[in-house]
Design brief:
By secondary structure, the chain is of the alpha+beta class. The chain contains 7 helices and 11 strands. The protein has one domain (about 5-195): 2-Layer Sandwich (Alpha-Beta Plaits).
């Protein structure tokens, strides 16, 4: 079984430093990589973006951040609308939108349910994060999002699918919008920090006539369904 690229994104580790965003901009703005990607426009494109959510209410609030990008799906919706070989799925799992063959095919942008494909108005082509395939093909062992991240949010793995499945189950990894069944190769760890609510508070007790926070209190939450 051939080895394929996968990316694990740990939401808990992201502190919104945006190094991944800036590294991708640095790599692609003004740089042409024939067969991989035309130069990224200076504005409006965020091939690697950071989503943010806040949980809780004042005075207890928690902010979390989640990098998002092309998921390099095995059953990619964008490939289903592409014409004339505009999109290819490489043997190593990476999806490439050909910067020449995709000209004029704006439907590729609309087909991505993750909003990860951008339209280059000047060049009239769809564009997305290419997993830095141009670097991996020259000997790099990781994409720039991982190389530039100071908090180890990203972990890229080139392994066979059975090993990736074992890691997914062992670490509790999930993908975005699994109901789409597009089989993404970008997996998320601790995604619950973006998708669930949390409960917090304090317990106050009377200690010698003074209100104090109660230590080692046991709190039981019960839900009553009507």
């Amino acid at each position: 079984m051939s080895k394929k690229w996968n990316l694990i994104v740990d939401v808990e580790r992201c502190d919104n430093c945006r190094n991944c965003f800036l590294a991708t901009k640095d790599e692609h703005i003004g740089n042409d990589f024939p067969g991989y990607a035309a130069p990224q426009p200076e504005k409006e494109h965020s091939w690697v973006d950071i989503k943010q959510t806040e949980r809780g209410h004042y005075p207890i609030v928690e902010a979390n951040f989640m990098p998002v990008m092309c998921n390099h799906c095995d059953d990619a919706p964008c490939m289903k609308v592409a014409k004339d070989g505009a999109i290819t799925k490489r043997d190593d799992g990476i999806v490439i939108i050909d910067p020449e063959k995709s000209k004029g095919q704006k439907e590729i942008v609309d087909a991505c349910p993750y909003g990860a494909v951008y339209w280059n108005e000047e060049k009239q082509i769809p564009q997305a994060w290419i997993f830095d395939a141009h670097l991996l093909d020259t000997g790099w062992t990781k994409p720039r999002v991982e190389q530039s991240c100071p908090t180890d949010v990203f972990r890229s793995l080139k392994i066979d699918d059975s090993e990736m499945q074992r890691i997914k189950e062992g670490e509790g990894l999930v993908v975005l919008q699994p109901e789409l069944e597009s089989k993404p190769r970008v997996y998320y760890k601790n995604l619950h920090l973006m998708t669930t609510c949390f409960v917090s508070g304090s317990v106050i007790g009377d200690v010698d006539g003074i209100e104090e926070c109660t230590e080692a209190a046991v709190v039981v939450l019960k839900a009553e369904w009507q």
